[in-house]
């Protein structure tokens, strides 16, 4: 079995009729919780199956600890996968499902039984080992699928949308379980997901993939807060996207007189600005003394809409003819006396004004092909 360590994908391609992974370069460090995110059909699951060896790469190299995996069979790669639908065998009970793969990985019957008992205790499966999958809840099916993967002592655990099949009752519990497995087992985990809440909670690093190509890799917070191109910005929920002319420490929205300070200083003259909706903050009148120089960006606007989303509200703002979107706690309705058509002043930190290109060509720094220090 390959020992835990670095995974490197170098110029990987995988060509299928009508679709291809192209020029994939990724570095996954030891003990990373690495998330691959992207739209449906972008190649996320195909990338996992290629790493596992189920779909051979057309070109490029997959390295584990510097060892080329091209001729290493699936059962000797030290990887295990948990699929979205859990893929349990309906004719086997929980114990049979968990033990199924041990016979193909050279694990003795006694050792397999010891691992079964240990994992059943950790994952809370001891009382249901004789049940068949049709008698299991969604959470029990997921824990069974995890035990079936973990009993092989994999160096890397691959998760293909592991939480999407769970109802809300089990979702939070399963998320905590994955975090505990990563922390306590010192395991490298690579997860495919489209749920941003799960990704931000679980992953420390990740990559955005679109149409079979990697758009950006790096720290998971950087992916969401500092996208490198317009597609990534839209995909990760960056809002208030507008074409801008870039100046020294400022951007000017094209077709308007609105100019904003930015802590970001790109080297290109034209691009796009994005501001996350939660970074537009309301300010009560009178906060800034008359005659003082405001720090950051203050805009006056008119509320064009208030949509109630339960714990928060989504607010539309018109400022100088530009349409902005903000997300605020619901209590702000009373605190700031918000209503359709009312005027309001808002503040945006220069650090919250992100500037990026429309397309990567590529942009240096948007793909980290070496481990971070």
Mean pLDDT: 88
CATH architecture verdict of the largest domain: 3-Layer(aba) Sandwich
- Indicate the low-confidence ranges by residue numbers: 1-5, 289-293, 369-373
Shape: globular
Major beta-sheet overview? 6 strands, mixed
Strand content is 25-35%
Overall tally of structural domains? 2
How many distinct helices? 9
Lateral arrangement of strands in the main beta sheet: 6-7-8-3-9-10
Distance between the termini: 27 Å
Rg, Å, rounded: 24 Å
By CATH's scheme, which homologous superfamily of the largest domain applies? P-loop containing nucleotide triphosphate hydrolases
Q: Structural class from helices and strands?
A: alpha+beta
- Number of E-state strands: 20
Q: Would you tell me which CATH topology of the largest domain applies?
A: Rossmann fold
Q: SSE string, helix = H, strand = E?
A: EEEHEEEHHHEHEHEEHHEEEEEEEEHEE
State the helical fraction.
10-25%
CATH class label of the largest domain: Alpha Beta
Helix-strand blueprint:
Blueprint: E1 7-16, E2 19-28, E3 33-37, H1 44-52, E4 59-64, E5 67-68, E6 79-82, H2 94-99, H3 109-123, H4 138-150, E7 156-160, H5 168-185, E8 188-192, H6 196-202, E9 205-210, E10 213-219, H7 220-225, H8 230-235, E11 239-246, E12 250-253, E13 259-261, E14 270-275, E15 281-283, E16 297-308, E17 312-319, E18 322-329, H9 332-335, E19 343-348, E20 354-356
Parallel strand pairs: 3-8, 3-9, 6-7, 7-8
Antiparallel strand pairs: 1-2, 1-4, 4-5, 9-10, 11-12, 11-14, 12-13, 14-20, 15-19, 16-17, 16-19, 17-18
Helix pairs in contact: 3-4, 4-5
């Amino acid at each position: 079995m390959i020992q835990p360590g670095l995974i490197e994908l170098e110029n990987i391609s995988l060509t299928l009729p009508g679709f291809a992974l192209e020029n994939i370069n990724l570095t996954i460090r030891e003990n990373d919780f690495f998330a691959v995110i992207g739209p449906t059909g972008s190649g996320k699951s195909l990338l996992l199956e290629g790493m596992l060896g189920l779909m051979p790469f057309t070109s490029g190299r997959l390295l584990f600890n510097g060892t080329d995996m091209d001729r290493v069979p699936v059962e000797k790669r030290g990887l295990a996968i948990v699929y979205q639908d859990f893929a349990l065998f309906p004719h086997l009970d929980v114990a049979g499902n968990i033990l199924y793969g041990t016979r193909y990985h050279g694990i003795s019957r006694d050792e397999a039984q010891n691992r079964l008992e240990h994992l059943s205790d950790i994952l809370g499966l001891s009382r249901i080992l004789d049940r068949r999958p049709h008698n299991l809840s969604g959470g029990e099916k997921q824990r069974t699928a995890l035990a079936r993967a973990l009993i092989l002592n994999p160096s890397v655990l691959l998760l293909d949308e592991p939480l999407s099949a769970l109802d809300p009752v089990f979702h939070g519990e399963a998320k905590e379980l994955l975090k505990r497995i990563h922390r306590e087992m010192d395991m490298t985990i690579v997860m495919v997901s489209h749920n941003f809440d799960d990704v931000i909670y679980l992953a420390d690093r990740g990559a955005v993939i679109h149409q079979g190509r990697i758009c950006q890799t790096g720290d998971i917070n950087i992916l969401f807060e500092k996208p490198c191109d317009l597609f990534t910005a839209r995909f990760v929920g960056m809002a208030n996207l507008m074409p801008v002319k870039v100046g020294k420490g400022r951007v000017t929205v094209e077709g308007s007189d609105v100019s904003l300070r930015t802590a970001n200083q790109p080297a290109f003259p034209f691009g796009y600005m994005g501001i996350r909706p939660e970074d537009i903050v309301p300010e009560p009148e009178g906060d800034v003394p008359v005659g003082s120089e405001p720090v950051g960006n203050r805009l006056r606007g008119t509320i064009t809409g208030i949509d109630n989303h339960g714990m928060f509200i989504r607010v539309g703002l018109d400022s100088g003819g530009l349409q902005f979107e903000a997300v605020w706690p619901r209590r702000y309705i009373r605190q700031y006396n918000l209503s359709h058509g009312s005027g309001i002043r808002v503040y945006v930190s220069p650090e919250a004004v992100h500037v990026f290109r429309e397309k990567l060509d590529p942009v240096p720094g948007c793909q980290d092909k070496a481990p971070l220090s």
